[in-house]
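note to self: the first set is below, dont mix up w the second
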Amino acid sequence: MLKAILFDLDDTLIDWGDFSEDWETIERPRLLGVYGYLSQFGAPRGTFEEFVKLFFRHSREAWNNARNTHVAPHLVKILTAASQDMGYAPSQWQVEECLDAYDWQAVPFVKVFPDVPEALALFRHHGLRTGIITNAFQPMKLRDIELQQHGLMQYFPECRFSAADLGYLKPHPSVFNKALATLGILPHEAVFVGDNPTADIGGAQGVGMKAIMRVLTKKRSFAGGLIVPDAEIYSFADIPSILDDWYPDWRKG
């Protein structure tokens, strides 16, 4: 029996296809807020530009390490490392206040795929529980801001996880197992939908879940054919018929 559908977030629920800015453009105003917040604890050792360079250096190091270990980069740890380089001890500042100063918001030109809300409403209407697992380096409380601004929070009341908070990136099995445990279900009672063949499809299948691939033209390769999704979709409107084949009784009544 199908009890839940879990989703990736970026390029599965929200579309980054029109985003053309470099990431530094997005981060600079956030980092300026953090730099100002830290400055109240004494003069920094360097300029704002130096702080930006430190942040991106520590970010690159964290993501490079993640490629080999699947240990998830974490925004707070990166900010902590950069602030220490600027002469601030972690004991001087509060994490929540720092994140408030960071002031994360939905990214310009990133929008919800138009096929998503209607499908999510259908799944919830028929009693399926829904969840999100994203390979983000921001804590989920920041990604929740985006979900609110995109009008998606109502569909995910109980299961939303960022890799940063879980400690590991997909495809690490602990990430998927944590979501399943939160919902109190077994792998065969859930389906995962994502756009990344290795992280989403291979990861979900590795713990025993069926996995549906949202196919984006720019990401059509399935890891050289080594990872084969249980189904492929170009629109969320295709998911109900797939579920009808796999779980004929998933719809209430």
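second set (the one i keep forgetting abt)
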Amino acid sequence: MSGGAVSRAVLRHVLIGPPVKFATRLKVEGREHVPPTGPLIIASNHLSFMDSMVIPLACRRQVHFLGKAEYFQGTGLRGAAVRWFHSTGGTIPVDRSDPRAAARSLELGEEVLRRGEAFGVYPEGTRSPDGRLHRGRTGVARMAVSTGATLVPCAVIGTDRVQPPGSNGFRPARVTVRFGPPIDVEALAVRYRKAALLRAITDEVMEAIGSMSGQERSGRYASDVKAELAAQEPSSP
């Protein structure tokens, strides 16, 4: 076993897996829809930082997620520990201040998929600011079309109670992770072309997530809702 494999095993089976499973009483449904090998896109709703921890545990595969470049820029012992945690867990650093970050994110995801690995995507683009399920962005569809990876919808329920919005702490709460049947991209490609195909795939992904999560649908982009809520907050004196 390589050094990287040992580190991943320690992280999953010793440092993270057991305490997270204990604190969340993690319940997994639909794992049979997740292929154990091969290129895989897991498209999920996004309620908490915890989502990126429970999804890999639930599907029993290492799942790469995009993360802030700042996670890899810390100094000292704490910075080294954070870097080890994220690099071992499969986090891919992205500089979100770079205007090219969105395009680069798709390229990074495609690189993971072409290696036959699993990549996690939050089609809403950011954590839900109000608990509702918001409109999906089509990047997830672009990756599915360009790589041919299996596209599995996923619903995470309860992570917002483990780590409430604005909180840096964790509290015990039951979490359920549900996987749905893969999206039939080929069938949609028979009916749609180009931009219409990307939107159709994305909408089907979001419909599947919504039916599994039970969240209210907003029909708007999460970033727009977040900006609107921020504008409504009273300014500091």
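remember for set 2: The first strand starts at residue 27 and ends at 29.
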